[in-house]
Amino acid sequence: MSKKNAAIYNQAIMDFGATVCKPQLPLCASCPLQKKCGAFLNNKVSILPIKEKAIKKTQRWFYYIVAQYKNEVYIQERLQKDIWQNLHQFVLIEMPEKSSVQSVINSNAFKTVFGSIKYNVAENSKEYTQILSHQTIRGNF
C-alpha cells in the first residue's frame, strides 16, 4: 500500500468494521476475509474483540488559593505522584466534595498551609471544570 493512500486505507478499515466485521452480529458468511480471519478460524467471533473494562471516573474538588503578600504570589510545585506532577500551581486545597469558601478556610488542609496568619478573601471565582480521561476536576480560585 502506498503511504499516500493511508487515509483511504484507514477509512476502508473503519467502514469494514462498521458494516461487516461489527461487534454485534458480524456478517461472517459474506466476509471476503473469512479464510484469513483469526476470530472465525478459531471460533472466537462471539468473544472478540475483548472489550476493555471502563475506567471508573472520579470527581475531585480543587480549591486554589491565590495567596498574595505585597507584590509576591505564593506558588508551589506538585511533587506527589499524581496528575500534573512537577508542574507549578497556586496553593491547592483539595476537598472531598463541593465546598463553600468557609468550609475550605475551616479545613485542616488550609490550617496546615496558612496556620494562624491573617488573610482577606478578595473574591471567589466561578466554578471551573477540567475533564481528564479518568477524572473530572472541579474547582475555584
Task: Explain how this protein is built.
The chain folds into two domains: 3-41, no CATH class; 58-140, Nucleoside Triphosphate Pyrophosphohydrolase, CATH 3.90.79.10. The strands form three sheets. A four-stranded mixed sheet has the order 6-1-8-7. Strands 2-3 form a two-stranded antiparallel sheet. It has a two-stranded antiparallel ribbon with strand order 4-5. Strand 2 (68-69) and strand 3 form a beta hairpin. The protein has helices spanning 6-19, 38-41, 101-106, 108-114; strands at 58-65, 68-69, 72-73, 76-77, 88-89, 91-95, 128-131, 135-140. The longest helix is centred in the first third of the chain and has 14 residues, at 6-19. It has 141 residues and is α+β, with helices and mostly antiparallel strands.
Reconstruct the topology from this structure.
Layout: H1 6-19, H2 38-41, E1 58-65, E2 68-69, E3 72-73, E4 76-77, E5 88-89, E6 91-95, H3 101-106, H4 108-114, E7 128-131, E8 135-140
Parallel strand pairs: 1-8
Antiparallel strand pairs: 1-6, 2-3, 4-5, 7-8
Determine the mean pLDDT.
92
Q: Return the CATH topology of the largest domain.
A: Nucleoside Triphosphate Pyrophosphohydrolase
Order of helices and strands: HHEEEEEEHHEE
At the first level of CATH, what is the class of the largest domain? Answer: Alpha Beta
Task: Give the helix tally.
Answer: 4
Dominant shape? elongated
N-end to C-end Cα span: 53 Å
Instruction: Give the total of beta strands.
Output: 8
**From the 3D coordinates, which CATH architecture of the largest domain would you assign?**
Alpha-Beta Complex
| Beta fraction | 15-25%
Number of domains: 2
Numbering strands along the chain, what is their spatial order in the largest sheet? 6-1-8-7
